[in-house]
């Protein structure tokens, strides 16, 4: 979709993101949707980010089974996926960020 702001024309697209927290006792997931407005070739703005779903599941020592269950419930069609967690995030081949940084992004 193209949006006209004054004389500038910006293209927008809807993006879906999934955040995973692989904790010591639970697997948590949050789904976020937002519009992404391309301002220039290398610059963009997120518009109207909102949570569309979340879940928290105890893993009781079986992280893999619980993670698969979480992905079955959330689906796997996302534009971006990131994980956090002190130790278990290393089991995944995903982008990982420290939890304090994830909180900063969420509230910033």
Radius of gyration: 16 Å
SS-derived structural category: alpha/beta
- Largest β sheet strand count, sense and barrel closure: 6 strands, mixed
Number of domains: 1
Total beta strand runs: 6
Key attributes of the depicted protein:
6-stranded mixed β-sheet, alpha/beta, 108 residues, 2 helices
Chain-wise SSE layout:
Layout: E1 2-5, E2 8-22, E3 26-38, E4 44-58, H1 63-74, E5 80-84, E6 95-96, H2 99-107
Parallel strand pairs: 2-5, 5-6
Antiparallel strand pairs: 1-2, 2-3, 3-4
Short description:
The protein is α/β, with parallel strands linked by helices and 108 residues long. 19% of the residues lie in helices and 50% in strands.
How would you describe what is shown here?
The structure is a single chain. The chain has a single domain, classed as Nucleotidyltransferase, domain 5. The protein has 2 helices and 6 strands. It has helices spanning 63-74, 99-107, and strands spanning 2-5, 8-22, 26-38, 44-58, 80-84, 95-96. Strands 1, 2, 3, 4, 5 and 6 form a 6-stranded mixed beta sheet that branches. Strand 2 (8-22) and strand 3 form a beta hairpin. The longest helix has 12 residues, at 63-74. The mean pLDDT is 83.
